[in-house]
């Protein structure tokens, strides 16, 4: 049994590898019924073949149809003369449950626009933020004011602010300046 390991490529790396945009990337995954979160090395190889097919002027739907016909031909093709002559024991007839051999046209792809790409990216960010609690907490924290803090944390903020930016008393500042000046002039005499 051959096991395939999960490929460790990010979406951005794969888009750069094939010179495509996110929408094209997802169209290719959808056409090959691949899950973007669990791509194997075999999946990447198939996507490489699809990319070569497209760069040679082919279309995604043609590639998927070719892959299906190649797989079904290799499963059906007789390997000996007696198999070629013998009738098939279980002929495959299309029905509602078995539509693998039928060619179903793909819907036309959405026209790719900068807006659709931005929208897709925004949707991915929204999903990412919705599924990562630390990011949700960070977003919540960015909306909080100091009045929303519990008393112990508000006290810490006040202490740090006072240490970093003390509000000097004008009388104390003037006295310190005068004392330094006196010390400097008395040392020169």
What key attributes describe this structure?
mainly alpha; 9 helices; single chain; 189 residues; 62% helix
Question: How would you characterize the overall build of this protein?
Answer:
With 189 residues, this protein is mainly α. Helices cover 62% and strands 0% of the residues. It has nine helices and no strands. The N and C termini lie far apart (96 Å). Mean pLDDT is 74; it is low at 72-79 and 81-95.
DSSP E strands, number? 0
Describe the oligomeric state of these chains in a short phrase. Answer: single chain
Unreliable stretches covering 5 or more consecutive residues: 72-79, 81-95
Given the C-alpha coordinates, what overall shape results? elongated
The class by helix and strand makeup works out as mainly alpha
Q: How helical, in percent, are the residues?
A: 55-70%
The largest sheet, given as strand count, sense and whether it forms a barrel, is: none
Query: How many helices does DSSP assign?
Result: 9
């Amino acid at each position: 049994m051959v096991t395939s390991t999960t490929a460790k490529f990010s979406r951005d790396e794969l888009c750069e590898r094939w010179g495509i945009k996110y929408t094209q990337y997802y169209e290719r995954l959808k056409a090959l019924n691949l899950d973007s979160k669990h791509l194997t090395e075999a999946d990447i190889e198939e996507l490489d073949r699809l990319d070569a097919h497209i760069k040679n002027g082919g279309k995604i739907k043609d590639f998927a149809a070719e892959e299906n016909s190649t797989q079904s031909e290799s499963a059906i093709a007789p390997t000996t003369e007696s198999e070629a002559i013998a009738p098939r024991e279980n002929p495959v007839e299309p029905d509602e449950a078995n539509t693998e051999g039928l060619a179903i046209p793909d819907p036309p792809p959405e026209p790719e626009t900068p807006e659709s790409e931005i929208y897709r990216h925004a949707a991915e960010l929204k999903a990412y933020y919705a599924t990562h609690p630390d990011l949700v907490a960070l977003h919540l924290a960015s909306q909080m004011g100091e009045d929303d803090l519990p008393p112990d944390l508000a006290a810490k903020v006040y202490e740090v602010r006072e240490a970093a930016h003390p509000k000097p008393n004008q009388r104390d500042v003037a006295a310190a300046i005068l004392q330094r000046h006196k010390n400097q002039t008395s040392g020169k005499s």
